[in-house]
Amino acid sequence: MSAGFRQGWKTAYPLGISEGYHLGSCETVIRSNQRKEPLRTRQWRLMFVVSGQGDPYATIERGLLLSLHELVSELRVATPFDDVALIAQTMKPDLVLVFNGMDYVSAETIQLLRQRGHRTAVWFTDDPYYADLSGAIALNYDIVFTQELNCVEWYRGLGCPNVHFIPLAVSTHIYKPQRVASEFHNDICFLGSGYRNRITLFDAIAPLLASKKTLIAGRWWERLERYSLLQPFIRGDAAWLTSEDTVNCYAGAKIVINCHRAFDDDEINANQRRIPAISPNPRTFEIGAVGTLQLVDARGGLETFYTPGVEIETFASPEELAHKIEYYLQNEQQRRRIALNGLARTVREHTYSSRLQELLHAAFLS
Q: Considering the chain, what percentage of its residues have pLDDT values greater than 70?
């Protein structure tokens, strides 16, 4: 047995034991917190119109459809490029639900559906970042769902009579704890585009990130002032990662950073009214579902979903983020305790099966 083999075995063996123990703990948490009774299928006919925008929306839509099949008696999926009105005339749905709805589905199509007696709804999933655009089309629909709590009263103020807060969630069919290849093992992981507020944050903690095994994946990271320092850790994909790669990256990391985009970034947003964003992004739930510790920038609405310090960790400054990264990398037991608590809360309350039951109840029974 060579010295190199012995050293590799001594390093890998305890890591394998630790990973196996954590995965076993995750399985126990999932079994203890997932719903025991079967979902109730309602005798409703639903047409679901996808966004037509590709990923990351397509992965969210795939998770939604896995749950919708269990909740309604008849489900028809259409794209915005189909003749939605003609399909509805044949299917006669009880509800036409347009996901995101920012592009492609015309006001004339929605008006025709309503004239024919079809109930219509839109679920905006990028509020408030494109509120200038969503506000221009919200009145076309019978029902408006938004994933941002701060937009509910704003839509009502525009004259929308039926507005509901339905945040995004996660499909535990897609996002779940799992063993991953060594190439996905990292101390720190961040997936997402290099928006200006993220650039500022990562520039501030660049020396720390460069001293760890770090993965940053996404567009626009070349805008970093310290790009040369972090370049070896950046996977600058022009396109979004596949959902499989995303799960692998989250599951293989010790810590995942989640930094929301800024609501007042005029470079990329269409939010002239400066509606603040307080509701969590879908990554919050996706990271929670894989059983990895999440460090997320503190948001006003976060505590409705997770308890900071118990089920998730937060930061309010680069200094606090750096301190908590160091602390949790050195304290595996505390890191995994919070990750398991977050997994339990996610499985119990934040799956798409739970969210869609709320949405359908609001659409048909409220």
A: 94
Closest by CA to 241, choosing from 230, 225, 228, 252, is 252
Tokens of 89: 């005339």
List of residues 6+ apart from 225 with CB closer than 8 A: 203
Cβ 46 vs Cβ 94: under 8 Å: yes
Torsion of CA 13, 17, 23, 24, to 10 degrees: 150
DSSP state of 182: G
- For residue 314, what are the contacts with CB-CB under 8 A and spacing of at least 6? 295, 296, 297, 298, 302, 308
Contacts of 245 (CB under 8 A, 6+ apart): none
- The pLDDT assigned to 166 comes to 98
For the record, the structure tokens of 62 come out as 């795939």
Encoding tokens for residue 102?
């920012």
42-169+351-364: CATH superfamily = Response regulator (3.40.50.2300)
Domain boundaries, given as residue ranges, for the chain? 42-169+351-364, 182-349
d(CA 92, CA 99): 19
Is the peptide bond prior to 56 cis by the omega test (within 30 degrees of 0)?
yes
User: Is there a contact between 88 and 119 (Cβ–Cβ < 8 Å)?
Assistant: no
Query: What's the CATH code, domain 182-349?
Result: 3.40.50.2000
> Which pair of structure tokens corresponds to residue 155?
């839509």
What does the pLDDT average to over 22-44?
Answer: 89
What is d(CA 305, CA 292) in angstroms, rounded to the nearest whole number?
A: 16
